[in-house]
Amino acid sequence: MARSIRMAVVLMMVAAIAVTGCAKKKRIADEAAIGGTGNEEALNESSSLGRYKRGLGPEEGGVLKDVHFAYDSYELDGSARDVLAANAEWLKENKRARTEIEGHCDERGTVEYNLALGAKRGKSVKDYLVSLGVASERLTTISYGEELPLCRDASEQCYARNRRVHFVPPSE
Asked: Taking the model in full, what pTM does it have?
């Protein structure tokens, strides 16, 4: 009797694992860790993730300039606000342009912490652009945390380059 109860419990556990789809959840979690959506058709080929998947490194610069942050911060300093004011002017002159705001971090901190910090950086940039008159629906944010660095050296200069918000080239 006890053996048949144990066998029933084991069978129920196996059935529960099969039904919940652990492999699918892990794949989605892995993609989320680097900012992916799992929808290849929606992938912007100009994004940092799109470039990575094509074997290219991240970009700096472009029409809309990157913003850099202090260590462990998502606050906008005076130079960041100046860059964003120029970006906002360009976006207001090009009313059909949309852009994705990518939050990035240096490698220090946990993956989870850096994903959250990258999201806060992206949100602070988006909120500031909206306060300058850019329509919110034209801006999307994504966090890549530490996953797609510009520089891989373990130096303060390299860390400073990686603590940024990058703008995906605007699309019409």
From this structure: 0.71
